[in-house]
Amino acid sequence: MECSGCFFWDTGSFTGAGYCRRNPPSVELNQTGTVTDSAVWPVTKSYDWCGEYVERDK
Predict the structure, then answer these.
(1) Which of 25, 32, 50, 56 could bond to 39 as cystine, CB 3.0-4.6 Å?
(2) Strands (DSSP E) along the chain, which ranges?
(3) Tens digit of each residue's pLDDT (9 = 90 or more) over 16-54
């Protein structure tokens, strides 16, 4: 039940990591805490896990 086997996980251009697309992207903040014009999905390692895992179709 690791991220690498989850339906919502997208490797993008990463190796050993990817985007968790289970929820909408979050607003990105700059170093001063001000909202930027972009939003991001969380990046997780392939061996991470969470309680909302959905097995990917084989």
Answers:
(1) 25
(2) 9-10, 17-20, 26-29, 35-40, 43-45
(3) 999 999 999 999 888 898 998 888 999 999 999 999 999
Domain boundaries, the chain: 3-45
* Whole-number Å distance between alpha carbons of 33 and 25: 17
Distances in Å between the Cα of 18 and the Cα atoms of 28, 32, 35 are 17, 26, 23
First to last CA, the chain: 14
User: Measuring CA to CA, which residue among 28, 46, 25, 24 is closest to residue 36?
Assistant: 28
Contact 26, 40 (CB under 8 A): yes
